[in-house]
Design goal:
Number of domains: 1
Oligomer: single chain
Distance between the termini: 45 Å
Number of strands: 13
Number of helices: 0
Largest sheet: 11 strands, antiparallel
Shape: elongated
Structural class: mainly beta
Length: 234
């Protein structure tokens, strides 16, 4: 198409197995309870008139997914040539946040050998977020975004992925403008079995991670693959 273009997507998802349900969150029940939240947003718009190709696919699956399958999956392809200095801007963001009280291994895992190293999963509160932004006058851009946080058992880890690829529009015609991608992770975990110490449990581990990469100018190839994975069985 030739002209102006705008598209926006927003998803918010909360799920829990806490006996009190979502309305009473925060404060999980004492044991064997978990809550997960995930959000996905995408916003694309042109500033001025340009020649533009835009292709977007999104799939949301609410059932439990095993490794290699996703609860949220979105792909986007943009090709753009601005007229008289016009540009296209696009942002993607995905987040998954999970918290759990201590959980009996036998309640979560199919594998009969999982309890050899202990009989309880410790409490945790983990968050991962990734996203990207482009602002370009000439663009050939692809993004792939996935996460999995509803699983049939603890034999499959939580995962979050966001991939950004900026390449030449055609041979010897680079994309022109700014492309940036980032990832933020916060991990907080306790230790010990539920019967050994009452709630609230002691924080035993805290990990913070931030990473961002930016390219600005004539871009022949800029590719960034970001991956987060968390689980007792991986």
């Amino acid at each position: 198409m030739v002209g102006n273009f705008a598209s926006a997507t927003e998803l918010q998802w909360r799920i829990t197995d806490d006996l009190k349900g979502l309305p009473e969150i925060p404060q999980l029940e004492d044991y064997n309870s978990t809550i997960y939240e995930s959000t996905y947003t995408e916003d694309t718009q042109s500033h001025g008139i340009g020649l533009m190709l835009y292709d977007k696919e999104m799939d949301v699956e609410t059932s439990g997914q095993i490794s290699g399958q996703w609860n949220i999956e979105a792909t986007k392809q943009i090709a753009f040539v601005g007229i008289d200095g016009a540009s296209v801007a696009s942002t993607d963001n995905i987040m998954v946040d999970g918290a759990a009280a201590p959980y009996d291994i036998d309640e979560l895992v199919i594998c009969p050998f999982a309890s050899v190293g202990g009989w309880a999963f410790p409490a945790y509160c983990n968050r991962a977020e990734a996203g990207s932004t482009i602002d370009m006058t000439v663009a050939n851009v692809r993004t792939t975004t996935t996460d999995r946080f509803v699983m049939p058992s603890g034999d499959h880890p939580v995962e979050l992925n966001h991939d950004l690829r900026v390449s030449e529009l055609v041979t010897d015609v680079p994309s022109v403008g700014l492309a940036s991608a980032y990832m933020d992770v916060l991990i907080q975990e306790a230790y010990g079995a539920p019967e050994l110490q009452p709630l609230p449990l002691s924080l035993a581990e805290r990990i913070e991670f931030h990473e961002e990469t930016t390219a600005d100018g004539a871009i022949t190839l800029f590719e960034k693959l970001m991956h987060y994975e968390s689980g007792m069985v991986r």
